[in-house]
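Support reply, case 0932

Customer input (verbatim):
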Amino acid sequence: MFRPWCLLIPVNKELLLVVLSARRPDMFAWYATIAAIGSVISCVLLYELGRRAGQLLQHRIKARHSALVQKHVHRHGGYALALGAILPPPFPFTSLVMAAGAVGYSIPKFLGTISIARFIRFALVAGVAAHWSDSVLQLWESRATQLAAFALLLCPLALASIPALRWVKRFRSQPAS
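Our regenerated output:
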């Protein structure tokens, strides 16, 4: 049985893609497409953030080093972006996307490379889940998996509460004016 609270678990989109594709194997291509579109949108936002940060940091980097980095990114950036978009975590894909923006990698090349590579990645993940849907669902519905998912939900909530508790403690310790 699919439990709605599992959508709140702060894990990557692949887990949701696997569960959805296993539940509806006939829809795996659609799920992969939607995941790829969402990923490309977030990559564009990261690219823009990297571009703006690159403009701010450009005056701090020596011109010779900056030119060398830009030359390598423009020459080999497509391969690095494609590989990074296909490889699973812990590959530092976010840093790679921001670096592409920082050095001004061509946006049409960026969008083409990221779109194709992310679709390949998500289609592979969804296709494997659809193919072995019975085993995936059996694992997902096991008690151990559900407990692990619940623990994954509690960990970030607990970590997020630490700064909030510090703020409350600091607020209470201030003298009333």
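We compared this against your earlier run and they match. Two observations from our side: The longest helix spans residues 143-173. DSSP finds seven helices and no strands in the chain. Please reopen the case if you see a mismatch on your end.
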